[in-house]
Design goal:
- It contains four helices and four strands; from the N terminus they run αααββββα.
- It is of the alpha+beta class.
- The protein has a single domain, classed as Rossmann fold, CATH 3.40.50.2300.
- β2 and β3 form a beta hairpin.
- α2 packs across α3.
- The mean pLDDT is 94.
Length: 107
C-alpha cells in the first residue's frame, strides 16, 4: 500500500489498479506454466487451471466460461485513521457469473 501510494501521489489502490494487478499475475503465471510459450490455446488452457490469492481474495478462472470466480463482499463506508474505507461485513464465496449459471440450470 505504501509503495503504491508513494508512486501515485498518495492515492490508494482501487478496483482499476487491482484489475491490472490480477491481469498481470494471470499472464505471468500462465507463461510460467507454458514454459514461456505465447501460443493462445496453451495460454488459455494454463489460465483456466490457476487459483490464486489476490488482494481481493481467492480467485480462479471458470474453465467453461473463462470468467473469473471470486468472492463478492458486501461493504459499508467507515472512517478509519481519518480516511474513508469500504469495510466488509458479509461475503458470498466463489461467485460465478450469475446469468451464465442461471442459463446452465434452465437447459
Amino acid at each position: 500500500m505504501a509503495a503504491f501510494k508513494a508512486a501515485n501521489g498518495g492515492i490508494r489502490p482501487n478496483f482499476i489498479s487491482l484489475g491490472g494487478y490480477d491481469g498481470m499475475h494471470v499472464i505471468y503465471e500462465a507463461l510460467a506454466k507454458t514454459g514461456g510459450s505465447t501460443d493462445g490455446d496453451k495460454l488459455l488452457a494454463a489460465m483456466t487451471t490457476l487459483k490464486w490469492e489476490s488482494p481481493r481474495g481467492p480467485m480462479s478462472i471458470d474453465p467453461d466460461t473463462r470468467d473469473v470466480v471470486q468472492n463478492i463482499y458486501i461493504r459499508k463506508v467507515e472512517k478509519v485513521g481519518g480516511e474513508l474505507y469500504n469495510t466488509e461485513f458479509a461475503t458470498f464465496e466463489a461467485v460465478k457469473d450469475p446469468i451464465k449459471e442461471a442459463k446452465k440450470v434452465a437447459h
